[in-house]
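Narrative of accomplishments. A recurring question from our advisory board has been how the design workflow behaves on a single, concrete structure rather than in aggregate. To address it, we present the structure tokens for one chain from the evaluation set, followed by the sequence designed for it. No filtering or post-editing was applied between the two.
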């Protein structure tokens, strides 16, 4: 029998879609990217008496899996899920999701879920670890704080003054590091995450303009917690040219982590996505290297959000050859000889 879609929910950034599907035998939640590729999946419950062993034939047909008796807390099955009684809570990063029903937390598919590596997600009715569900009860110590933070984050973000207050928080920090602001542009395009660009004109001891994003650090980056790197960043660029041209770099990269479900860090490179010759900063450059502390540029450290350190990453223009060397030999080879102050 064909599966029925019970519920569909897209994360606030448009980069992941949760679908809850069922047939007469069982229900499952899938986490997909916009192209439809499955990024995570977790069994939610059987609706019939559990079999004694895995039904491999059913698995091979792509239908929702049915949990063997040893793997479920409810061996005689449960009623079909009702969309009206389900609630979806996306993680702040947008890469993971929690699903609730009337009884509470039903399942969690975290951002680190990976079916190919045998980590499907967590289900309340699961017992032990199975290819399509791990026991939620055994992971609550770590997951409960994450879910609670997600709940608190979206409640705060929905507040009428939340974005304005956050803007002022970041702007106040930059005032102390770079001096008074100039122009301010909205770079969100009406989409989350909200993003602004603040201009800091030349000041005493600095003959160039600094542009910084305002808003990236309002939400943690996907996957960053799995690495030894700050989970919150803002981007900055220095220019002696037209600031409006340099600001195009932020339209390119400012929402990138949440749109592509990834993270940006010190030493990362990015190739310009338009035709060569259209790079916003003249000089024959074709991309950027992101550096936390390039020589000759201001120190923007000392800022935190929700107890997390925020790192400013400077976008330093690089050539096609430098991009290739960084890809082949590592960013350190290039970063050591970059003079950021001469590339603006």
């Amino acid at each position: 029998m064909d599966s029925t879609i019970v519920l569909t929910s897209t994360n606030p950034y448009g980069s992941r879609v949760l679908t809850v599907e069922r047939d007469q035998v069982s229900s499952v939640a899938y986490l997909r990217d916009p192209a439809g590729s499955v990024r995570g999946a977790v069994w939610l419950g059987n609706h019939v008496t559990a079999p004694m062993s895995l039904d491999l034939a059913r698995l091979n047909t792509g239908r929702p899996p049915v949990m063997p008796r040893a793997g479920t807390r409810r061996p005689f099955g449960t009623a079909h899920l009702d969309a009206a009684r389900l609630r979806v809570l996306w993680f702040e990063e947008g890469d993971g999701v929690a699903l609730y029903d009337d009884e509470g937390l039903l399942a969690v598919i975290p951002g680190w879920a990976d079916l190919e590596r045998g980590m499907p997600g967590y289900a309340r009715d699961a017992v032990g670890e199975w290819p399509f569900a791990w026991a939620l009860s055994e992971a609550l110590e770590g997951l409960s704080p994450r879910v609670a933070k997600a709940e608190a984050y979206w409640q705060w973000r929905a507040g009428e003054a939340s974005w304005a207050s956050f803007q002022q928080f970041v702007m106040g920090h930059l005032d102390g590091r770079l001096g008074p602001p100039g122009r301010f542009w909205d770079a969100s395009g009406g989409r989350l995450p909200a993003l602004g660009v603040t201009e800091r004109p030349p000041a005493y001891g600095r003959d160039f303009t600094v542009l910084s994003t305002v808003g990236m650090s309002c939400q943690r980056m996907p996957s960053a917690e799995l690495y030894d790197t700050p989970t919150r960043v803002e981007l900055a660029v220095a220019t002696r040219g037209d600031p409006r041209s340099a600001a195009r770099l932020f339209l390119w990269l400012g929402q990138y982590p949440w749109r592509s479900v990834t993270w940006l860090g010190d030493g990362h490179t990015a190739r310009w996505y338009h035709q060569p010759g259209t790079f916003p900063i003249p000089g024959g450059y074709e991309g950027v290297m992101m550096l936390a502390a390039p020589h000759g540029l201001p120190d923007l450290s000392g800022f935190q959000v929700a107890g997390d350190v925020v790192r400013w990453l400077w976008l330093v223009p690089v050539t096609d050859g430098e991009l290739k060397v960084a890809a082949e030999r590592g960013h350190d080879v290039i970063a050591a000889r970059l003079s950021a102050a001469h590339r603006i």
